[in-house]
Each structure stands twice: as C-alpha cells, then as structure tokens.
Amino acid sequence: MNVPLATLRDLRLTFPGHEVPALDGVRLDLLAGETLCVLGPSGCGKSTLLRLIAGLEQPDRGDLLWRDGAAPRIGFVFQEPNLMPWADLFANVSLPLRLAGMSRREAAPKVEAVLARVGLADRLRALPRELSGGMKMRASIARALVDEPELLLLDEPFAALDEITRWQLNDVLLDLRRRGAASVVFVTHSVYESAYLADRVAIMRARPGRIDSELKLERGPERGPALRRSAFFAEDCARIAEGLQQAMGRAA
User: Would you give the distance in Å from CA 249 to the centre of its chain?
Assistant: First the structure.
C-alpha cells in the first residue's frame, strides 16, 4: 500500500495585491512511488501548487506535512530549460552538485550516468545553443535528477515542444520512473499526456484554485505506443476530459 510522502491540508495562498486567493482549501496526498499528474485550466494555480510543494512559496494558511517530518530531496523541472548559455552540458547538469560543495572529479560519474539515462551521453561538451529544444529539456531533467531526488516536480516541461518530441520525452520520463524510486508530480494541460503518464490525476478548478476531483488510472507500470491505441486509454482520456469540463463549470 502506498504511504503518503506528503499530506496537503487546506492550503491557502494569496499573492500581494490580489483579493482572490491563488489557492484555497487545497487538500491532496502525495503518494510514495507514484506519478501524479495535475491538470486544470490556465490560471487555476497548478504552477503555484508545485512551487508550494517545493518550498518556493509559503502558504497563508494550512499544512504541508512531510512523512519524515522534513522535506525530502526535491528535483524541479521548470517550463523552460533555463540552461546557462555560456556553459557546456557537463557544467549545466553538475550545477546542483557543485553548489552542494562536490568537486568536479566527484561529480563527473554522476553527471555522466544521468546524461546517459536521458540519451545525451555524447553531448557532454555541447553548449545549449548546439542542442535542439528536446535535448535542452532532457538536460534540464538530467540536472533535476543528478542528486537523486526522492520527489521530482515537473511544471509543463514539454508544452512548447512538437508532438513527436513530446511523446519521446514522455517515454524518457517513464523509463526514468521504472529505473528509480522517485515520486513524480507532473503539471500538464494535456488530457492525453496525463492519461499516458499518470497513476493518478488531480483535476483543479480556478478562482480560487483547489482540487476539484481525483481519478485513479487502473493499469500496470508498462506503457508504450500500444497504450495510446487501446480502448482503456481512450476511456481514461474521456474520464479525465469529463472531470476537466466539470471543474470548468461545463458539465458534459
């Protein structure tokens, strides 16, 4: 049985100068070893929720309770790769380790291993301008994974990519999940992406942002091209789309 890695209870956050809270009454469990997709309309607070979990924002009210009493190691992948343009791939990916005081020699095996996991082993000395959009996002994921986080947070990392590259990176993420024990919270606008990646989907509504419903996707860990052609994938997409319509106030 999955044990909650974190419990969010009645979280509220209001930004200065705003009357309506960005988030209010958010209740959610983050389960160990699970991929949770957070889906909702623009402006509903998905990114804000992720930043609260990461500790980059602090709530006005409510509790964020970690299983062991303190936040675990967290990796964060933002909407943009945010790579240092003057630094090669090794320097970009090793940044969290170097900031933690690790020498270049100590960091090298970890960097090389994680770049191999995301399919960039041969681009160690490449500068960001020499990489495609998909490669830059792979590098951003590698940077988030290099210090072996227990919780990986991803904020619409593939939204700006073409559909083929997006599908490829979905499979990269699934492969990383199969190899590691990190829990994943993945923010997306895509019904199809959430149906493909998630063990569970949390659907948000706006003004103020909160969790409107949750859907458990009953399938095993194996995913692939055949899944997208299957009847139960279509059924999951329909369930998620219906939940999203209801959250937006337009019941199907």
Answer: 26
